Amino acid sequence: xDPIQPNFSVTESSEESLASKQNQNPxxxxxxxxxxxxxLDGEWSFAIDPDDRGLREGWYLGHRYEHTAHWxxxxxxxxxxxxxxxxxxxxxxxxVAWYEREFERPQxxxxxxxxxxxxxxxxxxxxxxxxxxxxxxHTIDGSDVHYGEYTSFSxxxxxxxxxxxxxxxxxxxxxxxxxIPRGKQESHVYKRGGIWYQTYTGAVRSxxxxxxxxxxxxxxxxxxxxxxxxxxxxxxxxxxxxxxQYTLRLKIFDRDDQQGEPLSTADFPLRLEAGQKxxxxxxxxxxxxxxxxxxxxxxxxxxxxxxxxxxxxxxxAHFGLRKFEARGRHLYLNNKEIYIDGILYQPGxxxxxEMQRHMYAMKKLGCNLVRVHIAGxxxxxYNLADEIGMLLxxxxxxxxxxxxxxxxxxxxxxxxxxxxxxxxxxVIIWSLYNEDWGAQDIATNPETRQYIMDTFHFMKIRYxxxxxxxxxxxxxISYEGKLKSDLLTAHVYTPEVDRWCEVLDQITGGQMEGVAxxxxxxxxxxxxxxxxxxxxxEWGGFGFSDYGGPNDLEERANRIKVFxxxxxxxxxxxxxxxxxxxxxxxxxxxxxMHTGELFVPENLLNSRQQEGA
Length: 613
What we know:
Blueprint: E1 5-6, E2 36-39, E3 42-48, H1 54-57, E4 67-71, H2 75-83, E5 94-104, E6 115-121, E7 127-132, E8 135-136, E9 146-147, E10 153-157, E11 165-175, E12 207-213, E13 216-226, E14 231-240, E15 244-254, E16 264-272, E17 275-284, E18 299-306, E19 312-319, E20 324-327, E21 330-333, E22 336-338, E23 340-345, H3 352-364, E24 369-372, H4 379-388, E25 391-395, H5 404-420, E26 427-434, H6 446-462, E27 467-472, E28 476-479, E29 482-483, E30 488-492, H7 497-508, E31 521-523, E32 534-540, H8 553-568, E33 574-578, H9 607-611
Parallel strand pairs: 23-24, 23-33, 24-25, 25-26, 26-27, 28-31, 30-32, 32-33
Antiparallel strand pairs: 1-2, 2-12, 3-4, 3-5, 5-11, 6-10, 6-12, 7-8, 7-9, 7-11, 13-14, 14-17, 15-16, 15-18, 18-19, 20-21, 21-22, 28-29
Helix pairs in contact: 3-4, 7-8
């Protein structure tokens, strides 16, 4: 086996001048370990299991695979390559795929540190089982099956089960089940075509083998800034095999001077039992500079778990000091009013490198916010947004039907995402649902509304650093006349300027019906008097045939300017243009999906510059 590589290098980025000159991260995660890793990407043996025989026949004990496939990739791509097709074949009900590869037994360092081996999947799914040399593995969280396809998961390895040459076997299953989080991938309810896309599932992100300490900090950090008091509250998760007394040490550095003295150091003695424990710790950062799109100041956190022998297990992350809130009609970042010039972003099948180019291009368009539309992206994209000063609005990939089971799956996906997207100062808004997909009975079913309200309240208590939208676009929930959303958002698609102005006047004047596809608010009566910020969170769609509007790029750019000017004349706190790139049947993008080249002038969406705001 090739030598295990360090977990991050010191190669300087050759990206645009906005790119960070800090250590570049080769792994799809936001929080790093200064340990060793070995990527298991590359050629794997591969087979489709159309009759789902593999479990019954024990393929994990040995199987002759017919094909090979490159990991990471998608089941759809691998099926196409296996059959020699140029077009990716569709599957209409269920797909089961098996992958297997060998790796040599890794060698530990000679310092006799209390370490073990761990395998981490950057993302894989929807349903994943993993075997090592024929033994079924259980995730760190104790499950023999991992569900979900947007977030990472890990397995600790028992060294007694490692051989000189090891076989890692992975079974991936997915279906068209409308009750699981799908985003805009087709299902039994919404079929491929128009705004619904082909499935893209399976081995979609890297997998790696690494050394980790037996007693350590998990690679997830929550950050809540209290900027008025120069305080930062960190949420840390410990993973313990050997109960005892430990010290948790936090050191904060200027990210531009990590070799200098720490700006702040704090020790916290803890008695820790076996298992996992989440712990909040507060540090003081005097004279800290605030993070904003105009000045994306970042700090570097080194968190160490130190045992009684003085051995330190370490994780590292960057963070920023910022406060984002809604007051009346307005939004405030660090206690200063801000207007959101946003754009809808659907990454689709884009690679990490393409997503990087997209982020820089959207910055050139003049956006200060990107709405990542009901999809999970590589965590390094959140880090990039922190570095270049781009606000992010993230969303839970939606199921396509409203049932008790779909709500359970939705909640599980939300919690998986929150655990890994709580560090980044760029993330300011979360949407629970979009256009009532997966909550189609929101207007008539009290159970659906109660679940969304309970989730909203949970988010506001546990994650106060975020604003939360209950159901983006329309049919927000009112309970006793109070909106269960921090924002009153509306999706408005009209190509006519006169109608556009009329609808904007109606919304800002408090009209709740006849301004979007469905009433803006459901539940108890709601009377809008400016008590919530109004966001036009989808508009335009120019170039998409179903929405009308100009296809000519110059005319499209001129229409966008006019529409933006009309919004800035009114009591509107922000807008999100639809959309960044063309994707499948939606041909309304403003930049090239592959190169990131703009189709329209730079700063077209920057109404802050145009209005002097």
